[in-house]
Amino acid sequence: MASVETAAEHERILREIESTDTNCIGPTLRSVYDGQEHGLFMDKLEGRIRNHDREIEKMCNHHFQGFVDSITELLKVRGEAQKLKSQVTDTNRRVQDDGKELLTAMDELRQCRLQQRNIATTIDKLAHCLPMLEMYSKLQEQMRAKRYYPALRTLEQLELSCLPQAGQYRFCGIMAENIPLLRTQIRDVSMSDLKDFLESIRKHSEKIGETAMKQAQVQRSLDSALSHQQSAGSGRRVRKEVGQSTELTGQGGSPQSEQDSGILDVEDEEEDEVPGAHELVDFSPVYRCLHIYTVLGARDTFESYYRKQRRKQARLVLQPHSNMHETLDGYRRYFNQIVGFFVVEDHVLHTTQGLVNRAYVEELWELALSKTTAALRTHSSYCTDPDLLLDLKNLIVLFADTLQGYGFPVNQLFDMLLEIRDQYGEILLKKWNGTFRQILDQDNYSPISVVSEEEYRCILGQFPFHDPELDKMAFPKKVPFSGFVPKVYMQLKEFIYACLKFSEDLHLSSSEIDDMIRKSTNLLLTRTLSNCLQYAIKKKNVSLAELVQIIINTTHLEQSCHFLEGFISNITNVPSDAINATKLYGTSTFKDARHAAEEEIYTSLNQKIDQFLQLADYDWMATQPKGQPSDYLSDLITFLCSTFSVFTNLPGKVIEHATMSGKVAQTACMSACKHLSTSMLQLLLEADVRQVSMGALHQFNVDVKECERFARAGPVPGFQGDTLLLAFIDLRQLLDLFTQWDWSTYLADYGRPTCKYLRVNPHTALALLEKMKDTSRKNNVFAQFRKNERDKQKLIDTVIKQLRNLISAQQS
Questions:
Q1: How far apart are alpha carbons 336 and 207 in whole angstroms?
Q2: Are 803 and 750 within 8 A, CB to CB?
Q3: Residue 172: phi, psi to the nearest 5?
Q4: d(CA 795, CA 394)
Q5: What is the span of the domain harbouring residue 345?
Q6: What would the pLDDT profile of 241-292 be if each residue is shown by its tens digit?
Q7: What is the pTM of this model?
């Protein structure tokens, strides 16, 4: 059984070797060598090989005849082949000989075709590169011509379109590497142009502003003429038209001009042709730089830089010169620079899209307003010339109207002008104070003498005066007032005109202007003119005649106040009887001045009386009177008579006043007499006079009688009866009491209305009696042993005792 299985296995292995690829026979052979029947297998394999050899031999024997036949035929074919080969070789030789020229021509043709193909390829490549080269040449030309925005556009087209189409060439690479450098160069050059532009407009802002303000002045003149024609002043300012200029409609827009100029030359322009402010400036550097930075994607950087630089320039422009207040040209240059700055910003605002916005411009304007108003307040406070301040006001109004025409709010400027108006009023008051004082100092305080009708009409034209009786008088004649009356009246009108000039163009209503003028005029009347009149009245060496003339003058000025009211109403078109109309205080001013003059007359007279009384030289120990008035009193009476004769020139209607009854002359005379009476009584009772004799008292009585004679003579007409004598009644009753020694009547009737010595004060009587008592004791030391003297001394002591009791009872 084992041998059968082994034989079957060997058979299988042999079949497998026969049917299997030699690459996979390894495992089969391994199984043979792993077994124990290796030799048996080899025998089996040898037998199989022999079988196959016998089969091959059989097959070869079967086909051998055919093979022999094939070899025979092949030998035959070899001969024919050799013949054919020789023929072919010969033919080839002939063909080669014949084709050598053709090959040469074909080779030449091939070389020609190759050159044609290369040329066509070169032309094609050049055709693709030529637009790029032309573009690059155009770029170089634009760069040389400083046309940077088109150059930037060309550069963009070159980079995005031409270079990619041209292919990969070395010169294309060089061009591509130069593109960022060219962009940087264009950006730097455009920024340099912008810096030059900013510096140029900074230097020329004054010229720009001057032109804009001239335009505003012309426009205002046209508006004023139109408003006069239509009889309706609107006060509005029409905004000037902005000139034709290219606005940025998108990032692909082009600037207005490619010429690098900042400020155009307008020096040769005719004076009567005022060019537009924006026409003085070439804004192309701004537009060009804005376009360039927009294309480069750095618009925000450009906007930030522009605004920052303009803010710095604004601060420089808004910084006034330290001596700006000295001349009007200083203010004009300051305003021109500010206007020029904002004209440029307004134009940039309206001709660019977002380079500056309204908020930015308003912020700059708020800064300018605060700085400008502060500077004007400071510098205008140094001004003491009203004409300069008025010119400054007109310049500020023109400045405000110019900027208002460009849409800037200017209410703060007009509010500040109201503050300056108050300062202007103060300066006017100081100027008119000097004018009034000069008029009053140079006046002769005499009635104006008129010798001709023309001269008389001239005075009436200067001052509202009408006197029918004076009109009928023949020349020469005198008007009652002196020269300062028409001069003061004309100066009052000039002051009103000056106030009106400042109030014009301040956008105020007629009632507001009227109120301002009236308040300023009231200040002039109540403060300035009043002080000047007080100065003229109170100054040294003013004669009574001058004081009398001042009274006459102030009366006429008082009567002219309603004419001033009408004058103000006419120039302001506001009725003086309007509800809110301020009334002039001229009446009270001139009344106060007149009262002061009257008081000065009284005071001057009293001072003169005091000077005469200082010359009094009484011998208070005299035993007998001289029998005639004292020299000082005679001189005093003579002076009073001559003085009161001056008052006869005062018309009764002139010297009437509201606060005191009577007339100035009568009042002055009564005041002088009362003061003389009081002063003489004080002279009698003064502490330095320790003793008074009866003889001295009789001499004093003689002087008092002389005073009474003067009063009774009526130095000033108009007193009823012995009214003037009442000024000396106190002194008269006192002297009668002592000279008549009527103590019993005085002591008995004291306190009764019918008392004979009602005006005698017990204190006065006691003081004088004690001086007489001391005199009696000193002069009659030895006479006291006489009975009469002793009785008199006792009587004096008794009267003194009774007077003291009377005083004590009165006090209790």
A1: 7
A2: no
A3: -65, -40
A4: 91
A5: 169-222+279-408
A6: 333 333 333 333 333 333 434 444 444 443 444 455 567 778 878 888 887 7
A7: 0.65
